[in-house]
Amino acid sequence: MALWLTEVLGGTLNFLWPNLSGGFGGKVVIGTFDDVKLMNSTLPIAEGFPSYVQNAHAFIVLIDPSRQEFLPGTDTTGDGTAMNVRPLYQRCPHLGCKPNPCLKNFWLECPCHGSRYDRLGIKAAGTKYGPAPRSMDRFSATVDKDGVLTVDTGKITLGPLPVALGQPGIIPPKSPTGCI
Question: How confident is the model at residue 10 (pLDDT cuts 50, 70, 90)?
Fold first, then answer.
């Protein structure tokens, strides 16, 4: 009986203990911009299309595609402008579904209830663009001197409020029609 109780207690504690050694919930090394392009070689990552990285539960997006690199620095807010990269949490802030990147318009579109975000994760304002209350959440990140991106999936910053299409702060879709 004591052995069984020890096994149950040990298993429970192991399950509840957070994984901070490099998986989701801790720091995940993504790699350089070239590594990210290789992960999704069939997608136009160099044009700013979101790249999905499964072990980080994140979309990695180049902010200014003309620069073609991540810049050294640290960003605890997840904005990433100074580093030219934004790591977005894969969950839609509405109910937690995973938005899908759409090649037609370069936006992220949630298949559950239709919330739509530009390629940098900014939610388009208005009921036409779905019910999500805010833009996609972001992770804290660091780019070292060699251009290697590390995302801290344990530090999430809530996304900003939606922005009306046509206003500064949102990238218009490449096509008026999307994928959903």
Answer: low
- What are the backbone dihedrals phi and psi of residue 116, each rounded to the nearest 5 degrees, phi first? -130, 140
For residue 118, what are its two tokens?
Answer: 């530009």
**Residue-range domain boundaries for the chain:** 23-157
Q: Is 60 helix (H, G, I), strand (E, B) or coil?
A: strand
Rg, Å, the chain Cα set: 18
Contact present, 149 and 81 (Cβ < 8 Å): no
Please tell me the pTM assigned to this model: 0.85
At position 122, the amino acid (one-letter code) is I
Burial class (CB in 10 A: 0-12, 13-18, 19+), 126: exposed
Of 113, 155, 152, nearest in space to 133 by CA: 113
- The pair of three-digit structure tokens given for residue 53, joined into one six-digit string: 């990285």
Query: What is the CATH topology of the domain spanning 23-157?
Result: Rieske Iron-sulfur Protein (2.102.10)
